Amino acid sequence: MAIPISPLTLSSFLLAIITTGLGFPGLSANPVEFAREIRPILSDTCFKCHGLDAAKRKGGLRLDQKEGWFTPREEGTLVVPGKPRKSILFTRITHSDPDDQMPPSDEVRQLTPLEITKIRDWIRQGANWQPHWSFTPLRRPDLPKNDNASRTLGPIDRYIGRRIAEAGLQPVEPADKATLLRRVTLDLTGLPPTLEELGNFLQDPSHHAYEQVVDRLLSSPRYGEHLAVDWLDLARYADTDGYQDDEPRTMWRWREWLINVLNDNIPFDQFTVEQLAGDLLPNAALEQKLATGFLRNNRVTGEGGSIAEEFRVEYIVDRVETVSSVWMGLTTGCARCHDHKYDPVSQHEFYSLFAFFNQTPEPGTYRGLAKPSLKVPTRPDQKRLREIEQQLSQSDGDQRQELEEDRKRLIGRTPDTMVMEDSQRRDTFILERGQYDQRGRKVAPGVPSSLPPLPRGVEINRLALAEWLVDPEHPLTARVTVNRLWQHHFGVGLVKSSEDFGVQGDFPSHPDLLDWLATELIRLNWDIKALQKLIVTSSTYRQASQPSPAARQIDPENRLISHAPRLRLSGEVIRDQALFVSGLLVERIGGPSVKPYQPANLWNEIAGPTTSAYAKGYQQDTGDALYRRSLYTFWRRAIPPPGLQIFDGPSREVCISRREQTNTPLQALALLNDTIFVEAARGLGTRMIRAGGENQKARISHGFQIVTGRLPRSEELSVLRNSLKIHQRTYLDDTSLALELVNVGESEPDPALSAPELAAYTAIANTLLNLDEAITRP
Questions:
Q1: In the prediction, which pLDDT does 595 show?
Q2: Within its chain, how far is the Cα of 142 from the centroid?
Q3: What is the model's pLDDT at position 84?
Q4: Which residue(s) pair with 568 in the sheet?
Q5: How far apart are CA 90 and CA 102, in angstroms?
Q6: pTM above 0.90, yes or no
Q7: What angle, 0 to 180 degrees and rounded to 10, lies between the N-to-C axes of helices 177-189 and 528-536?
Q8: What pLDDT score was predicted for residue 21?
Q9: At what angle do helices 528-536 and 511-523 cross, to 10 degrees?
């Protein structure tokens, strides 16, 4: 007869096994690291009741700090190094009595046997306590030795190689030149290489050929456009207000500033200071003031009946959360209502950060734009205005009047952009439970005590905060920044949770490499392009993407980076690539947002009684505006561009440090049927006929190489040729179908080509644009 065993009895039995060691290994031969293995366990199971939040702390016990761990208490010592059975921590987590068991038996999250074993082993090994890794001072680690006598390895490769070797793996062979060129060109510009660029690179045998390619790409104006997309996600940039009516606003001049400074490669510390406090710099230039539009990109409301102060507080909370996430990788918003339950940020410290942003005279409810705002002409217009000023001093009569009218026109077309301004002093108070009208103690501007203090002898304002963030002694900013750059090139950061460097976040896969890159960025005077060059010229980056059988088994997520990752391209890059290979892409830096094709009536779905006529219906653009790069697409928060959202584009209602990546049937349907992709396929088909050669094989091979960067294999070519023959017969039999296909979109088909022939090649081009290789970074 089977004896029923309750879950509690079974749990106690397992704990007893662990306590006695029966069925479990003895003391682990491998050192148990507190920061990597023990703190995450405690964070998940203990910190909620024994963490920073004093109001919720139980038993007067705090486990997130070292104090109290080794000090004798009335009931004993929490941890006695080397002696688990004499340590209260261990006896309570292995207690068989539900009344004494920790975590309490009614908690959903319970310790697993393996976790208890780790805690036991950690205590036996001496209970070496460590602070959380991301708050430790940033120090440059020693480089691992170069154990590869056959070649000289760079710093990145030494750190990666050491971890690979420890796991018993080997790095794979380098990627072939065509694959590498496509990879780095997509990574640095968001567009594929041209056939001319591919041919030049393949034919260049010089040792410096690849480095020269990297330098060319970093100096391309396309670089700033591509890198800007990541920052637009962080900055929660959009062309509308958000909330209910989601009315339009004009912030594109800030976006244009962003693209320009990324291309200019201004140091990241300057980039930071200008966005957070450009208006407070001595003799601040217009563009430096414009940079503070970063802080005004938040959602706002103009809904009738809204309480102005309530929403003004929401805007400032958003800025605290955004700045904390972008520069420090901290989820400070958890401390709005109470002390953070996991990270060392108290509610008092949250509102001390809040105080930095509480001085701008911004209304709580408005639509579109509100003061403070600024008119900043575009760079070409600024140049022309300077020329006009010089010419006015030497002109009179009709010429002077013409110049005055020209100046008036240029200034008149310059939009207002919301910026920051500290023109009034406002007291800041802790808001009890985060409620705007529940004021508690008064607080001054300040920073968390777990981080280095603000500099002495300076005015404590946003400028002091910005300069504090980029101080070389700050432990977070450089780490967070290089991790995000690594994420850009490898799909996943060295810290997977790029938005959270706190206790609930992930431990770095390569902590020494992370710190080396962070100190290197500072040593390079915060030169982002120089650091990117270091990354993309490493052997690690240049590996092939095919994993070894051993790597699949040992490291299925490729966290050790024994091979290059294959990454699904973003919606922006997929669309831009299709426009580029079709010859439709209109390349022009900056300017207002554009409205390309999108399904009809989407905007009408959210129109309410107070929605303006402008926001009720989507007015599609015409001409060149249809074919601009995707970062210029009008971004409505309530209904983001559907062609980008289907490929995981965010709403940009809040700061996003990393996008989700999904693969769905809807994505394939969009690539096959969306107007822009069908029109792009026709453009590519035209190129195949016009420039591919005189026969089907040459034309198909030409299109295949344009899209993928390589020539098709014989079996691929055979499938495509058979498909072409089928389409040719279909469209010759029904010319109306051919005409319907080649007339999709607003651009005109080539009148010199027959509709059935062009339609057949359009179908083949559509297939090419849907290949896995076409939408994947190799």
A1: 98
A2: 29
A3: 86
A4: 776
A5: 9
A6: yes
A7: 160
A8: 42
A9: 140
Q: Provide, rounded to the nearest whole percent, the portion of the chain with pLDDT above 90.
A: 74
| 500 has a pLDDT exceeding 60 | yes
Characterize the bridge pairing of strands 776-777 and 567-568.
antiparallel
DSSP class per residue in 293-332: GGGG-S--B--TT--HHHHHHHHHHHHHHHHIIIII---G
Q: Which of 309-318, 398-407, 552-561 has the lowest mean pLDDT?
A: 398-407
103 alpha carbon, distance to own chain's centre: 36
List the single range of 384-393, 442-451, 721-730 with lowest mean pLDDT.
Answer: 384-393
The SS3 assignment for 279 reads helix
Residues 49/66, Cβ–Cβ less than 8 Å: no
Q: Is the pLDDT reported for residue 524 higher than 90? A: yes
Distances (CA, A) of 661 to 3, 487, 569, 653, 673: 48, 13, 9, 18, 21
Helix (H, G, I), strand (E, B) or coil at 486: helix
Residue 525 near residue 542 (C-beta atoms within 8 A): no
* pLDDT computed for residue 15 by the predictor: 41
Query: Which pLDDT score is estimated for 151?
Result: 67
Neighbours of 17 (CB within 10 A): 16
What rounded mean pLDDT belongs to the chain? 92
Q: Domain extents for the chain?
A: 7-130, 266-376+417-469, 384-413, 475-542, 567-649, 672-777
Contact (Cβ atoms closer than 8 angstroms) between residue 245 and residue 610: yes
CA 538 to CA 156: how far, in whole Å? 7
What whole-number percentage of the chain has pLDDT above 70?
Answer: 95
**Strand 373-375 with 416-418, pairing:** antiparallel
| pLDDT, position 28 | 55
Whole-angstrom Cα distance, residue 430 to residue 498? 29
Q: Residue 357 pairs with which residues in a beta bridge?
A: none
* pLDDT attached to residue 208: 96
Q: Check residue 27 and give its pLDDT.
A: 52
Pairing of strands 439-443, 567-568: unpaired
- How far, CA to CA in Å, does 133 sit from each of 137, 479, 662, 757? 9, 11, 31, 63
Beta bridge pairs of residue 77: 72
For 362-390, what is the mean pLDDT?
A: 91
Q: Which residues contact 344 (CB under 8 A, 6 or more apart)?
A: 52, 64, 135, 448, 449, 450
| pLDDT over threshold 60, residue 303 | yes
Q: How far apart are CA 151 and CA 505, in angstroms?
A: 36
**Is 173 within 8 Å of 544 (Cβ atoms)?**
yes
Give the other-Cβ count within 10 Å of 754's Cβ. 15
The Cα 480–Cα 499 span in angstroms is 8
3-state secondary structure of 648: coil
Cis peptide before 372 (omega within 30 of 0): yes
* CA distances, 418 to each of 285, 291, 467 (Å): 16, 10, 22
| H/E segment holding residue 231 | helix 221-234
CA neighbor of 183 nearest in space, from 575, 566, 644, 707? 566
Mean pLDDT, residues 547-561: 97
The angle subtended at Cα 703 by Cα 699 and Cα 705, nearest 5°, is: 115
Tokens of 277: 């406090």
Average pLDDT in the 643-660 region? 97
Cβ atoms 632, 730 nearer than 8 A: no
